[in-house]
Design goal:
By secondary structure, this protein is an all-alpha fold. It contains 15 helices and two strands. Helix content is 75%, strand content 1%. It is globular.
């Protein structure tokens, strides 16, 4: 998994600002811009894996059962906590270990995308192997990037970091799962993947140009990372449970909406163009607006705003599913993305603070990765309850979960970043 991108030169490095409370400083924004660029490339890869490759494979005439196996490439994104200790212990660069990991993994992504670009006629198992390699490298890059933000972003900047991350992921999702699919036929297989590789290469350049050293607490000989250390603490177990509840609630409100619209006999083309682009765009706008609004309102009042948006959207979808027509259901399916994106900004900001310690990559992966894994498993259970409950009761339950999540998170999330 070699990369032609060299780690930052230590002799010319300048240290990142120490994490202090207070108003965001202008000098901190270049780092946030560089990490946002990389999060966008990660969103592109994830969107490509989730919504780009499957229809592209099907359009090439590959059997539907074989296409289903391509969803295995999403597995590494939910299991990063298993190899997170490596990011904390193995240091390719003494002065900038996280940045070196990011550069190496981004280089591997570019190389594998170029291999895919030349493999249009390759058998599905070869393409699946390349896809797994890309997913593994992207998940590891994201892990190192989260660790870098955890140790380098000041407390006053965590809301900004969380908002920019969610916004960047939305942009990447639109690119990888929307525009990529729309233009793939016109551009062709090879050019499409070459463009993806070029985008991922360009995305890492801003971070390398900064030539920054990482915080001094990362210097010295690393201790062995402990995957279970966080789980031995009662407060962290409670936080993990809350993050799991929040992730499951947001997933239930947003992941099954297109299935619900299909049950309401909404044409697939309308779902794709209106909801497929409208929902992530709504999430993008909400996540960007969350940065100034949460700073002004505070986290707890901000949560009430996003909870209200989620409740309104859930009510609209329940009304549509109960016989009120497709229009309120479509409006709710789009609007709920704004509420859930606002919640994810708060979750990301809180997790950055909770994972701050001697093994940030491991702690962040345990908190974020395990909570998303639990949410995914709960979502599988919920899909089996929908035929028994019906969509109106399902969304009523989702609304109740939003209220519970908001009340419980308000007790543990600081009202002001710092």
């Amino acid at each position: 998994m070699a990369s032609t991108v060299r780690p930052p030169v230590a002799e010319r490095a300048t240290p990142l600002p120490a994490p202090v409370a207070g108003a965001p400083r202008r000098a901190d924004w270049p780092l946030l811009a560089a990490t946002t660029s990389l999060y966008t490339s990660f969103g592109l890869i994830y969107g490509l894996m989730q919504g780009g490759l499957p229809p592209l494979m099907r359009a090439r005439g590959i059997d539907l059962a074989a296409v289903g196996w391509f969803f295995i490439i999403l597995v590494p994104f939910g299991l990063t906590f298993l190899w997170a200790p490596l990011i904390d212990v193995v240091r390719p660069s003494a002065r900038a270990p996280r940045i070196a990991w990011i550069a190496l993994m981004q280089g591997a992504i570019v190389a594998l995308l170029l291999a895919v670009a030349r493999g249009e006629a390759a058998p599905p198992p070869i393409l699946l192997a390349l896809g797994l390699g890309i997913a593994l490298a992207a998940a590891t890059m994201d892990l190192a990037l989260d660790a870098l933000c955890t140790t380098s972003v000041a407390g006053a900047q965590r809301i900004a970091a969380g908002g920019l991350k969610v916004a960047a992921l939305a942009i990447g999702s639109i690119l990888g799962g929307g525009i990529f699919v729309a233009l793939a036929t016109r551009l062709g297989w090879s050019l499409s993947f070459h463009l993806c590789a070029a985008y991922c290469l360009l995305a890492v350049i801003p971070l390398l140009i900064l030539r920054r050293r990482e915080p001094p607490q990362l210097a010295g000989t690393p201790r062995r990372a402990d995957l279970l250390a966080m789980l031995r603490r009662r407060d962290m177990r409670q936080r993990l449970a809350l993050l799991s509840l929040a992730s499951a609630t947001m997933a239930a409100l947003s992941f099954l909406n297109r299935v619900m619209l299909v049950d309401l006999h909404v044409p697939l083309a309308r779902i794709g163009w209106i909801v497929g682009i409208g929902a992530p765009t709504c999430g993008l706008i909400a996540s960007l607006l969350a940065i100034p609004s949460l700073r002004h309102l505070g986290t707890r009042r901000g949560m009430l705003v996003y909870a209200g948006l989620c409740l309104g959207a859930a009510a609209a979808m329940a009304i549509g599913a109960a016989g009120g027509g497709a229009l309120p259901a479509i409006v709710g399916a789009i609007a709920v993305s704004g509420g859930t994106s606002g919640f994810f900004v708060i979750i990301c900001a809180a997790t950055l603070g909770w994972a701050r310690g001697e093994q940030p990559a491991t702690d962040y992966a345990v908190l974020y990765g395990l909570s998303r894994l639990v949410a995914t498993l709960l979502l599988v259970v919920l899909t089996r309850l929908v035929p028994l409950l019906g969509w109106p009761l399902f969304y009523a339950g989702g609304a109740a979960a939003v209220i519970a999540t908001c009340a419980l998170l308000a007790r543990v999330v600081p009202d002001r970043a710092g």
